[in-house]
Amino acid sequence: MSKQLTDFAANRGEQGAAPSGSPFEWNSSSIEVSAGGSISQRIDFWREIILRLFADVQISAVQRADFFGKVRQRKCDKLRMSEIHAAEQAVNRRYRQARSEYEDKYFAVLMLEGTQSVEQDGNIVALRPGEFAIYDATRPHHLHFGQSWREIVVSIPRTTLNQLVVGMETRTASPMNTSHGVGNVMRAFLEGMSSQIGHVTEDEMLRLSDTAITLIAMTLGNLQRNDIAQSRLKTLTLMRVKTFVLEHLRDPELNPHMVERAMGISSRYVNKLFEADCTSLMRYIWRMRLERCSEELANPHFSILRVSDVALRWGFNDMSHFSRAFKERFNVSPSEWRNKGVQG
After folding, report:
1. Which of 47-51, 61-65, 105-109 comes out lowest in average pLDDT?
2. Among 21-25, 62-66, 231-235, 279-283, which stretch is predicted with the lowest mean pLDDT?
3. Which of 123, 144, 205, 334 is most buried by a 10 A CB count?
4. Which domain holds residue 330?
5. Mind listing the pLDDT tens digit for each residue in 154-204?
6. Cα dihedral angle (38, 42, 48, 50), rounded to 10 degrees?
7. Residues whose CB is less than 8 angstroms from the CB of residue 33 and which lie 6 or more positions away in sequence, other chains included
8. Confidence of residue 228 (pLDDT cuts 50, 70, 90)
C-alpha cells in the first residue's frame, strides 16, 4: 500500500466519547484506536484524541490497514502524564500562541520505543529510546514519528517551569543527557511513575508530580535557587489549598471564607498564592467545577442526568450563571458539548 498522507485539523475540546459500537475506546484513563473500523475512521478519531488531550495541531498519518493509537493517561492539578503508543505520523502546529489554557504547556517527552524528531525555533533533535527533550506547545513546532513508537509525555504548565528554570525558551528541541546524573534519575523516575499512575491516590499523584517537575527542571539545568525554602513553603501551602478545594468542590458553600477557616490562613494570602498561576481562588474553583461538569456531560455513563443535575452535583446553584460560564469557557453551550461528546 502506498503511503499517502491525509491531513486533518479541528478545534480542540477536553473530553469525549467514542460512538456506541465503534472500535474505539475512551474513558478517563485510557483511549485506544483499535484495528477495527475503516482507516479514515481510525485516523480521524486519533486526530480528535490528540486535539482534545494535547494541542490544536495538524496531523498527517500514513493510511495503512494496521494504523493504531493508544493513550494511557492520568492528570492532576500540577501536570498530565501520558504514555502514547501509535503508528507512523507527523504533527504540525502553526499557531503562535495558546488558543486555550489547555495548550499553555510545555511537553516533556521521554522516548521509550521507536524514533521521533522534534523541531522548534530552528532547533531539531532526534530522539531514540531513553532520550529526552521538551518543547513549547504554544509555539509552532513539527514532530515526526517513525513506525510503531511509544513515549511518555508530561504536560506541565508553562508558568511552572518558567519559574524554576532560567531561559526556558532556549531549552526547547534540544538534547538532554539521560545517560547519567540527574537526567538518568529523572528518566527512571518518569518510567516508574508512568507504570504506576493507575495505582496511586490523588494525593500520591500530587506528591509524585512535585518530584517529577523538580527532576525535569534539574535536568533542564540552571535551576533558580533564590529563596528556595520560601518558594517551597508557598508551593506546599498552595497544594494544600487546592487539595481542600478539590475535596469540597461539590459543596455549593465553598468560598474564600470557608477555605480561610479550614486552612487557618487569610483569603488575601490565598489569592496571592494563586497569583503564581495567574488566577484567583474563586476563578480556580469555578474552573475546576466547569471541568468536572464538562467531563460528566461528555461521558455516556452520565447521560441519564439532566444538564442541570450535573451542574448541581458540582456546586452550581444558578443555572443561568452556569450556562454563561460554561459557554465562555468551552465556546459551546452545555447541551451542545454533551451532544458533541455523545456523537464522538
Report:
1. 61-65
2. 21-25
3. 334
4. 256-343
5. 999 998 998 888 788 888 998 888 998 999 999 999 999 999 999 999 999
6. -160
7. 23, 24, 42, 45, 46, 49, 67, 68, 69, 70
8. low
Q: How confident is the model at residue 294 (pLDDT cuts 50, 70, 90)?
A: very high
**Is the domain of 214 the same as that of 260?**
no
Do 263 and 211 lie in a common domain? no
Overall number of domains in the chain: 2
**Distance (Å, whole) CA 49 – CA 32:** 9
Write down the mean pLDDT value for the chain: 82
CA distance 313 to 252: 9
CA distance 202 to 38: 38
pTM over 0.70: no
For 118, 160, 164, 173, the CA distances from 213, given in Å and listed in that order, are: 21, 8, 9, 18
Are 35 and 179 within one domain?
yes
Cβ neighbours of residue 296 under 8 Å, at least 6 residues apart? 302, 305, 310, 313, 314
CB 47 within 8 A of CB 8: yes
Spatial separation of the C-alpha atoms in residues 312 and 309, rounded to whole Å: 5
Are 265 and 197 in the same domain? no
All residues at 6 or more sequence positions from 153 whose CB lies less than 8 Å from its CB, including other chains: 54, 81, 82, 83, 84, 107, 108, 109
* 180 and 278 together in one domain: no
How far apart (Å, rounded) are the C-alpha atoms in residues 207 and 253? 28
Identify the residue whose cell numbers are 489554557: 101
302 shares a domain with 205: no
**Residue 321 clears pLDDT 80, i.e. is over it:** yes
- Looking at the structure, tell me whether residues 136 and 283 fall in a common domain: no
